[in-house]
Design brief:
Belongs to the DegT/DnrJ/EryC1 family. The protein is an alpha/beta fold. It has eleven helices and 19 strands. The protein folds into two domains: 231 residues, 3-Layer(aba) Sandwich (Aspartate Aminotransferase, domain 2), CATH 3.40.640.10; 119 residues, Aspartate Aminotransferase, domain 1 (Alpha-Beta Complex). It is globular.
C-alpha cells in the first residue's frame, strides 16, 4: 500500500507513546501537520500568538488557515517565547467580551497560542497551560525541534492537563535535519482521541465511504506513505542514542567555547526542562555576519538565526508585542553551530578553534 498500512500504524503508535499521548496521525510534512492543527482548531479570522523568532512555517500555516498572527518576543534567558510577555499582552491589550477574549487594538478575537519549542528545549509549560486555561485559549505545540524532550521528567503530551485535552494539539516534523527523519514527513499528536480521528479523516481527503467515494468535508491529501513510515519506525529505534549524542556534543561545545572565548552566551535551559540539544545556538558579543562568512569559507556549515518574522515584509502588517526587541538582537548576533549526532569531538574542536579565530 502507498498510504496506510502496517508501518504507518506502527510509526504512529511509537510517536504517541514517545509524546505521552493517546494517538498520532502521520502526514506529509511538519507544515502539513501545523495546517491540519489550525484547521482542527476552527478559529478562522481570530488572532494567534506566535513567537517572533522562529522558522516561518507556523506563521505561514496560520495565515493560510485564515488566522492573524500576533508576534511575541523571546525571553532573553531561555530563548523561548516570553511567557511574561504573553501574560502581559492578555492583561494589557485584551478584554473579555461575550465569552471571548478580544484584542482591544484590532477588535479581533484572540483564540490560540502557538508555542514553537526552539533549539530542542521546551517553553515554560506550566505557566503557559495555566494562561490558556485562564483565558480559554487553544494551544498548538510546534515540537518540530524537540522530539524526545521532557518537562519535569514527563514527555510533552503528559504535561497536558486532563481538562484541556480537547484544546491542546502537538505537531512535529521529520525533515532531514530533525533528530529522526523520514526524508520528509510530520505528525499531529494529541491526548484527545476525537481530535486524532478528525485529523486522520481530514488528512485522508475526508472520504467517508471509500467504495462510493463519498466525501463529507473539504478534505486534504496530507497522508504519509507506508514507505516513509517504515523509515520512521527504524529511525525511532535510534532516538535515545541520538539524544544522548546531541547532549554530549552540547556539553563539549559549552566547555570548549567558555575555555577559549569571552562574552559568548548560550540559552539558559529552564530547570524543569530536559531538552534534546537539537541545535547548538550561541550569541556572540559582536554581529555574527562576518564571522559566519569566515567559517563558511572554511567549509564549516554554520548558519544565522532566522530573521524575526515581523521584519519580513510579508508579516510586517501584523502586530508585534515586545519589550526590548531581543529577537532582533539574537538574529544579529547569533550563530547556529554544526549539531548533527555524527559530529565528533575533533570536528567540534575545529569548529570552536575557527570560531575563536574569526571573532578576534
Amino acid at each position: 500500500m502507498s498510504y496506510g498500512g502496517w508501518y504507518v500504524r506502527e510509526f504512529e503508535t511509537s510517536l504517541a507513546q514517545t509524546f505521552g499521548c493517546a494517538d498520532a496521525v502521520t502526514v506529509a510534512s511538519g507544515t502539513c501537520a501545523l495546517q491540519l492543527a489550525f484547521e482542527l482548531s476552527g478559529k478562522r479570522d481570530t488572532e494567534i500568538l506566535i513567537p517572533a523568532l522562529t522558522f516561518a512555517a507556523p506563521a505561514s500555516a496560520a495565515v493560510r488557515a485564515g488566522m492573524h498572527p500576533v508576534f511575541v518576543d523571546l525571553d532573553p534567558k531561555t530563548w523561548q517565547v516570553d511567557d511574561e510577555l504573553l501574560a502581559a499582552f492578555l492583561e494589557e491589550r485584551c478584554v473579555r467580551r461575550e465569552g471571548h477574549v478580544v484584542n482591544t487594538a484590532s477588535g479581533r478575537r484572540v483564540s490560540t497560542i502557538c508555542l514553537v519549542h526552539l533549539w530542542g528545549d521546551l517553553a515554560r509549560l506550566d505557566r503557559i497551560h495555566a494562561l490558556a486555561r485562564q483565558w480559554n485559549l487553544v494551544v498548538i505545540h510546534d515540537a518540530a525541534q524537540c522530539l524526545g524532550a521532557r518537562y519535569k521528567g514527563l514527555p510533552l503530551g503528559a504535561t497536558v492537563p486532563d481538562d484541556q485535552v480537547d484544546q491542546i494539539i502537538i505537531t512535529t516534523s521529520f525533515n532531514a535535519n530533525k533528530i529522526i527523519t523520514t526524508g520528509a514527513g510530520g505528525a499531529l499528536i494529541a491526548k484527545s482521541q476525537s481530535l486524532c480521528r478528525r485529523a486522520r479523516h481530514l488528512s485522508s481527503t475526508a472520504k467517508a465511504d471509500t467504495m462510493s467515494f463519498f466525501h463529507d468535508d473539504y478534505g486534504l491529501n496530507f497522508r504519509m506513505s507506508n514507505i516513509n513510515a517504515a523509515i520512521g519506525v527504524a529511525q525511532m529505534e535510534m532516538l535515545s542514542d541520538r539524544i544522548h549524542r546531541k547532549q554530549r556534543l552540547h556539553q563539549y561545545y559549552v566547555r570548549a567555547i567558555r575555555k577559549r572565548m569571552d562574552g559568548v552566551r548560550f540559552a539558559h535551559q529552564a530547570p524543569e526542562s530536559a531538552g534534546i540539544c537539537w541545535m547548538n545556538c550561541i550569541e556572540l558579543p559582536q554581529p555574527s555576519r562576518s564571522v559566519i562568512e569566515k567559517l563558511v569559507a572554511q567549509r564549516i556549515m554554520v548558519r544565522p538565526v532566522w530573521i524575526p518574522l515581523p521584519q519580513l515584509p510579508v508579516y510586517s502588517r501584523f502586530e508585534y508585542y515586545q519589550r526590548d526587541a531581543f529577537s532582533a538582537r539574537l538574529h544579529e548576533h547569533a550563530i547556529m553551530l554544526p549539531s548533527g549526532p555524527g559530529v565528533t569531538e575533533a570536528q567540534a574542536d575545529r569548529v570552536v578553534s575557527a570560531l575563536a579565530e574569526a571573532c578576534r
